[in-house]
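Researcher: Final request for today, and then I'll write up notes for the group meeting. The sequence and the SMILES for S-adenosylmethionine follow.
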Amino acid sequence: MTEKLIKSADRVKNHGEIFTPKRIVDLMIDQPEINAKVNDLQATFLEPSAGEGAFLTEILARRMSIALATSSNFSEYNRNCLIGLASLYGIELLEDNVESLVMNMNDTFRNAYRDGAQSAFEHEPSSKVLNSAKVIIRANMVQGDALKRITSDGKPIILSEWASVAGKKDYVQRTEYTFDAIVDGSGPTGKVAGATQQLDLFALDDDSTTDQHDEIKYVPCRWVDIYKEQLVE
Ligand SMILES: C[S@@+](CC[C@H](N)C(=O)[O-])C[C@H]1O[C@@H](n2cnc3c(N)ncnc32)[C@H](O)[C@@H]1O
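Model: Predicted protein-S-adenosylmethionine complex:
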């Protein structure tokens, strides 16, 4: 099948919108240093001009295979699939591309998750996992101008960190940060610093303080209960 790499000449001119063909995506992701991070379920990737997800969907597909290969039971598989997904982030300027990006990430996750659940564990997919994946994808694939660091309505771009809770491997803590704070290394709702490179997006620094974004605090929960989006009261 022929890949559609441009939507219109105007979009190429105005937004530099040319999608990357699959063979180039594969070539780049196969570079050893990138591939090592793809294979590490917790390594962070941020695509600041994500388009429809040419890179992120391929990374996710590979992560799902790693999750399957490294899980010895169904509940471990559930957790590993969500961990592999939660460290993938995309920012995209154009609304229609963001919609496709979200849809493509959801499709990639759902299909790979279902196939692995049925073939390796003879289990039907868990709706908790699928719904938690939807919440993660909606939080991590955001509309915005990555250069100005704002959304189309002028608000700061917000990204969520999904951190495993020390000593409780089933549990995750979601924390929201402004993209500004991540890039500048100032603290938004919590403390983020030194996060100027893609693979170190949420490096923590206890000394940072600044905040421009109203704080939303999530209750730590099991990975498969992320879909509940429970807030601290
Ligand atoms: C060359 S395309 C690449 C898309 C995708 N990464 C791929 O490889 O298929 C560049 C993308 O960046 C988006 N874009 C342009 N300016 C942007 C900005 N300031 N912030 C975020 N996205 C932007 C465009 O809408 C377009 O989808």
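Model: The first helix runs from residue 9 to 15. The pocket of S-adenosylmethionine is lined by residues 15-20, 47-51, 54-55, 91-94, 97, 145-147 (CB under 6 Å).
Researcher: Thanks, that's everything.
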